[in-house]
């Protein structure tokens, strides 16, 4: 930042003689860039350099418990990854969990947002209650669900369901994916609700009034006026939600450890297992690279969307 | 919509009072429904906190107990088990990384909004793409690097990683605040002949102070709750609160009340911060896209 102390701006605006101008244009460029550089350099070093190493490791046979075992194996790790059926299952689980969580949270969040977009007694208190699951530390929330809610003997869920003949279901073991999904939806619904509620509240009131004067029913107004208005907010919620949910690790680690077997193992958890329980650096690095490539493909589409909704051209 | 155009002429005259009464009844029903939804969502949290005040015998019962003699015993146990060290680690890592994020992101956001560099959107694209890359893809090299350099289980490693994790959000968010500052304000400062740094400090900084606060809040939430890096890259020296929670189950066995007390304390700071700053939350979570 200290490099930016000699600002050429005031003097360099009016056109001066040729050569000085070119030099000051370059100085101007650098004085603009200077404040950006620390953050940019930091981000590149911390996020990109390790990834280059991941690329390198993915071409090695390298096991942490056998130091010195490193050797170049070319694309062998990738061949192994693609013929690994657990990897494919984990990919499928990732898609199911992410898709399921985003869709369910979005629908629930939309419903709650509509309910909260009215004036009623205790509105801000109810809003506060509903956002709490999002603020709770994910590890704590996983504990809470596993032991207080879903425990087969002492859990509240079985207690509540006991009049319906359900009393000794071991939810986490018998329905691992649904249990994780439940925890995730509980956590992410408030997130969706907050963004969508902001969208509802940004809706111009006169448009709604015009619709009701026109005699459009509440439902018709919602479908034809409110939903199109919300579109940008829905896209944004889905995109941001998906970015976070795709990386879900805490809940799986706490609730099921990916089990039983590999029934609830998603990609982050599988890669973690290969790296820290199997100590197989080469394999897990190759998986990481494959996941990144997949993410980039999805993200390119998603980013185009986000840029549209953020109006980046503003500047 | 076209089919209903004939109706409104007749409706107000004949059916206004019943409709209004039905509307009010419907309103009450909706309010009750909203409250019920809120309570259902909050119930697990309430149960967790309630259990934290129970004795173990009251916590593990076939029929959940609502009436019991409250005790602080569990909280005492949790702190006796060494929670303070972890809280100190979490607090230090959260505070330092948030400070670092702000120090890096404020100038960066400035260079992407007020005096923009030429390739603003490319840079923004880069920042957000780092947020999309799965962290698992870099955990192995991070482990190997930190092990080789003796930085494994070091709190500064956590600080650097938390900073990298929150930097993109902060840059986007702060930029959205800076874009809102009217151009005339900045031009006036320039005409005054104030240097770049002086105009930044005296004009810009006070105006974006609320934005900085909101950004810091988001960074605090994500850092305090972070688990993946902490569980993989710390062992004992630098472990944070989530790691304590995990270790607590394995070392102490399953004691519901005690576990609840630990989880309550672990979650409390961020929950309170989020409650207090609800308005900023929306803006932060949408990375500044929603005001």
CATH A-level architecture of the largest domain in chain B: Orthogonal Bundle
User: How is the biggest beta sheet of chain B arranged?
Assistant: none
| Name given to the CATH homologous superfamily of the largest domain in chain B | MetI-like
The biggest beta sheet of chain A, please?
2 strands, antiparallel
Overall shape of chain B: it is: globular
Number of helical runs of chain A? 15
Largest interface: A-B, 114 and 112 residues
Keywords:
heterodimer; A: 315 residues; mainly alpha; MetI-like fold; two-stranded antiparallel sheet; disordered N terminus; B: 291 residues; globular
Protein architecture, described:
The complex is a heterodimer of chains A (315) and B (291). Chain A is mainly alpha-helical. Chain A is built from 15 helices and 2 strands. Chain A has 2 domains: 2-72, no CATH class; 85-314, Orthogonal Bundle (MetI-like fold), CATH 1.10.3720. Chain A has helices at 9-12, 18-33, 37-57, 76-82, 85-116, 123-135, 138-149, 156-161, 171-174, 176-201, 205-213, 218-245, 250-255, 267-276, 281-310; strands at residues 60-61, 71-72. The two termini of chain A are 22 Å apart. Chain B is mainly α. Chain B has 13 helices and no strands. Chain B has helices spanning 11-52, 56-59, 73-80, 83-110, 120-132, 136-148, 155-179, 183-191, 196-225, 228-233, 241-252, 256-276, 278-285. In chain B, helix 3 crosses helix 12 (256-276), helix 9 crosses helix 13 (278-285) and helix 11 (241-252) packs antiparallel against helix 12 (256-276). The radius of gyration of chain B is 26 Å and the shape is globular. At the A-B interface, helix 2, helix 3, helix 5, helix 6 and helix 7 of A face helix 1, helix 4, helix 5, helix 6 and helix 7 of B.
């Amino acid at each position: 930042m200290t490099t930016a102390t000699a600002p050429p701006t005031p003097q360099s605006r009016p056109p001066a003689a040729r050569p000085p101008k070119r030099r000051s244009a370059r100085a101007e460029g650098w004085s603009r860039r200077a404040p950006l550089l620390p953050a940019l350099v930091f981000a590149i070093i911390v996020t990109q350099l390790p990834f280059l190493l991941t690329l390198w490791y993915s071409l090695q046979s390298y096991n942490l418990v056998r130091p010195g075992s490193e050797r170049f194996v070319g694309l062998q790790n990738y061949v192994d990854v693609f013929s690994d059926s657990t990897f494919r299952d984990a990919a499928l689980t990732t898609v199911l969990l992410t898709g399921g969580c985003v869709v369910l949270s979005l629908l629930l969040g939309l419903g709650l947002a509509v309910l909260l977009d009215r004036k009623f007694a205790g509105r801000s208190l109810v809003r506060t209650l509903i956002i709490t699951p999002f603020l709770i530390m994910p590890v704590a929330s996983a504990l809470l669900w596993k032991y207080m809610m879903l425990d087969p003997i002492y859990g509240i869920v079985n207690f509540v369901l006991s009049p319906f003949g359900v009393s000794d279901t071991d939810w986490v073991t018998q329905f691992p994916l649904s249990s994780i999904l439940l925890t995730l939806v509980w956590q992410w619904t408030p997130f969706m609700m907050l963004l969508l509620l902001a969208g509802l509240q940004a809706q111009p009131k006169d448009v709604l009034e015009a619709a009701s004067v026109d005699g459009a029913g509440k439902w018709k107004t919602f479908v034809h006026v409110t939903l199109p208005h919300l579109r940008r907010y829905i896209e944004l919620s889905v995109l941001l939600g998906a970015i976070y949910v795709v990386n879900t690790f805490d809940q799986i680690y706490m609730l099921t450890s990916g089990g039983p077997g590999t029934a609830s193992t998603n990609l982050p958890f599988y890669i973690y297992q290969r790296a820290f329980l199997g100590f197989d650096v080469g394999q897990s690095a190759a998986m990481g690279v494959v996941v990144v490539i997949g993410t980039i493909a999805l993200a390119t589409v998603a980013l185009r969307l986000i840029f549209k909704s953020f109006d980046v051209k503003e500047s | 919509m076209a089919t209903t155009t004939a109706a409104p002429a007749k409706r107000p005259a004949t059916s206004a009072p019943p409709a209004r009464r039905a509307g009010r009844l419907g309103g009450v029903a909706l309010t009750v429904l909203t409250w019920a939804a809120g309570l259902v969502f909050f119930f697990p949290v309430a149960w967790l906190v309630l259990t934290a005040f129970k004795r173990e015998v009251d916590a593990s019962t076939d029929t959940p107990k609502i009436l019991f003699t409250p005790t602080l015993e569990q909280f005492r146990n949790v702190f006796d088990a060494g929670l303070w060290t972890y809280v100190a680690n979490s607090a230090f890592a959260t505070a330092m990384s948030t400070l670092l994020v702000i120090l890096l992101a404020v100038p960066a956001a400035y260079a992407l909004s007020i005096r923009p560099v030429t390739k603003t959107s490319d840079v923004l694209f880069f920042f957000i793409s780092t947020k999309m890359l799965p962290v698992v893809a870099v955990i192995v090299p991070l482990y190997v690097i930190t092990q080789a350099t003796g930085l494994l289980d070091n709190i500064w490693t956590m600080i650097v990683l938390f900073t990298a994790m929150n930097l993109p959000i902060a840059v986007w968010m702060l930029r959205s605040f800076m874009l809102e500052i009217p151009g005339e304000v900045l031009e006036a400062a320039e005409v005054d002949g104030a240097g770049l740094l002086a105009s930044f400090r005296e004009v810009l900084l006070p105006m974006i102070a609320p934005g900085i606060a909101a950004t810091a809040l988001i960074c605090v939430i994500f850092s305090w709750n972070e688990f993946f890096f902490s569980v993989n890259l710390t062992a004992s020296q630098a472990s944070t609160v989530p790691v304590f929670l995990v270790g607590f189950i394995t070392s102490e066995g399953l004691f519901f009340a005690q576990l609840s007390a630990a989880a309550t304390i672990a979650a409390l700071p961020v929950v309170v911060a989020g409650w207090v700053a609800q308005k900023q939350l929306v803006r932060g979570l949408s990375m500044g896209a929603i005001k």
